[in-house]
Amino acid sequence: MAEFYDELAPYYHLIFTDWDRSIRRQGEQLAALIDKHWPFARRVLDVACGIGTQSFALAQRNYIVFASDMSEVALKRARLEAQKRNLMIAFTRCDMRRAHEGHGSGFDVVVCADNALPHLLTDEEILQALGQMFECLLPGGGCIVTVRDYQGLMKAGKGLLVPYPLHESAAKRYIVFQQLEFKGAYCSVRFCIVQEDLATRESSVRVMKTHYYAVSTDRLCELMREAGFTDVQRLDGAFYQPVLIGTRPK
Description:
Layout: H1 2-8, H2 19-37, E1 43-46, H3 53-59, E2 64-69, H4 72-84, E3 90-93, H5 99-103, E4 107-112, H6 123-136, E5 137-146, H7 150-154, E6 159-163, E7 167-168, E8 172-183, E9 186-197, E10 203-213, H8 217-226, E11 230-235, E12 243-247
């Protein structure tokens, strides 16, 4: 997982038509969720921050943000991008399965976005991560998880192509897409980037591979309850992916 995101980090922004606009929109959406369910929240922990999208989104809305990831290359970029935006965010390297060991307690909200949780390939690993997120929270605090709806995607068949926006500058053109292939309970992903030099018309192709556990949102909700969360629910239309939320009881 870390190696995949190490390689992807320089290109991750290419999945957005306009990364900064997406950051602002996600900030509005996440803040709306937090304000509705945990209006007291100020301290937020992002346990799978990647290059910083959700961390920036929340810091721009004046939350106190702590963030971590497994990929040191993604973290390096996140730190540089945060500096460009004059955002004060504490970035550290930490496995979400060790979130409480790495960050301790005292958070009002824990965020695990962008389908990061299904990188853990068993119920046991997911439950371990959710348990660590639970321990990071103050009583009454909330957990926000966003994931792909794998059950819906599987209806399209064993294979699926996911295109991303075309990016073009004066010198280069990037064509980006994912190829998803379902095998039993798992989803294999090939993240493909075609880079074309517009002056020479020469092209190169970079393919990065990873795997996900194609776990259903129903099962994830069950695991959140098993980890101790209450008021667990799936929310549709609140974010670009289905959102699962739960609260640590007071």
